[in-house]
UniProtKB/TrEMBL annotation:
Protein name (Swiss-Prot/TrEMBL): Branched-chain-amino-acid aminotransferase
Bilayer-crossing regions: none
Keywords, in A-Z order: Amino-acid biosynthesis, Aminotransferase, Branched-chain amino acid biosynthesis, Pyridoxal phosphate, Transferase
Cofactor(s) needed by this chain: pyridoxal 5'-phosphate
Organism placement in taxonomy: Eukaryota, Fungi, Dikarya, Ascomycota, Pezizomycotina
Enzyme kind, highest EC tier: transferase
Length: 399
């Protein structure tokens, strides 16, 4: 008997339809109000349409413009939306690089399937981004200005016109690129030490829970947290340190993964500790993963002036952090992620207690060392031009 099954098309970024903009946008200067707005996108965007009947259509790189979606679109009513945060870096050898893009592609697929959107071959994401950067890279990240980057936002939305509780029948994957201020160049106010101030979340405010979707990068994770973030900013803090459960386990800091380095109370050994992935309360950050892998490879033995650390993924509470501070066992703390990269934490306010996280200055330096190693890979310097975590984008256009 004849078969009536037909395979739908896979996402394929080897062939991309390109429409060049005839109205190029001004490139904002570093530190300008336009850059600080986080909204001044490059000249082009990448888009790919998907339907449940035919699968993925031919990808496009086209002029940046507003999207047109119906008021009944699934993403507007049922939060069928997910995204990634990435950067493209202008290397000191003149080349453009992505940092571990397959990790982002794989996570985007996991997020999309968690929110009932289609999957795809995750390797195609880096190829799609490369097509976009081959057009916009030379103008927005000039070769004579190494050490700069653009923030990339790959996003998928359910955009079909089908109202009603059902899985989306249409979706749109798009990628935009945005000039982004470099947080490492932010100068602290006179008389203050560098680092973030974190406000511990209130027990009645929860970011994620077991069986939920805290491990996926969904817009639905972020909207409900913005009120608490705004309240933290209003009283002089930078981010919320999200706690969970009656024992108040430490999970994430804002949209970043949280690390603390302390002396273990029982063994006296130095540990680098971060929350585990097993309970799916935190996002499996690409920077987090890289910090863990580098630390296990390089910091479990003496490294310059740094004493060796044991790298531990385990549940710990804000009470554990406060006790370590009171007993003088805190060495340093930092957050990591694409937006904040690696940024030290100087203080955590837990209720009416201010916990000094800077520790003893002579013992610290792990975050700085990790940042140096990662920057060398991202920007192709100090012998890291061909590191396995880098994806070099070739074939830039000068047009």
């Amino acid at each position: 008997m004849p078969s009536f099954t037909s395979a739908v098309a896979e996402l394929d970024a080897s062939v991309v339809k390109i429409t060049r903009s005839t109205n190029l946008r001004p490139v904002p200067a570093p530190g300008s109000p336009e850059e600080l707005s986080h909204s001044h996108c490059t000249d082009h965007m990448a888009t790919v349409r998907w339907t449940d009947a035919n699968g993925w259509e031919t990808p496009e790189v086209r002029p940046y413009e507003n999207l047109s979606i119906p008021p009944t679109a699934s993403c507007l009513h049922y939060a069928t939306e997910c995204f990634e945060g990435m950067k493209v870096y202008r290397g000191y050898d003149g080349k453009l690089r992505l940092f571990r893009p397959d990790c982002n592609g794989e996570r985007l697929v996991n997020s999309s399937q968690r929110t009932s959107l289609p999957g795809f071959r995750f390797e195609e994401l880096k190829r799609l981004i490369a097509k976009l950067m081959q057009i916009d890279g030379a103008r927005w990240l000039p070769k004579d200005q190494p050490g700069r980057f653009l923030y990339l936002r790959p996003t998928m939305i359910g955009n079909g016109p089908h109202l009603g509780v059902q899985t989306p029948k249409e979706a749109l994957l798009f990628v935009i690129a945005v000039p982004w201020p470099d947080p490492s160049k932010k100068v602290p106010e006179p008389g203050t030490k560098p680092g973030l101030k974190l406000l511990a979340s209130h027990p009645d405010t929860i970011r994620a829970w077991p069986g939920g979707f805290g491990y996926a990068k969904l817009g639905a994770n972020y909207g409900p947290s913005l009120q608490a973030h705004g309240q933290a900013l209003a009283v002089g803090f930078d981010q919320v340190l999200w706690l969970f459960g009656q024992d108040r386990q430490v999970t994430e800091a804002g949209a970043s993964n949280f690390f603390v380095i302390w002396e273990n109370k029982e063994t006296g050994k130095r540990e680098m500790v971060t929350a585990p992935l097993e309970n799916q309360l935190i996002l499996p950050g690409v920077t987090r993963r890289s910090v863990l892998e580098l630390s296990r490879a390089e910091l479990t033995r003496p490294c310059g002036d740094l004493a060796p650390v044991e790298v531990v993924e385990k549940s710990f509470t804000i009470g554990d952090v406060e006790q370590a501070w009171r007993e003088g066992r805190i060495v340093e703390s930092f957050v990591c992620g694409t937006a904040y990269f690696i940024t030290p934490v100087k203080l955590i306010r837990n209720g009416d207690v201010d916990i000094d996280m800077l520790g003893a200055a002579e013992n610290a330096g792990y975050a700085k060392q990790l940042k140096t190693w990662l920057e060398a890979i991202m920007f192709g310097k100090d012998g890291k031009e061909n590191h396995e975590w880098s994806y070099v984008i070739e074939g830039e256009s000068d047009k």
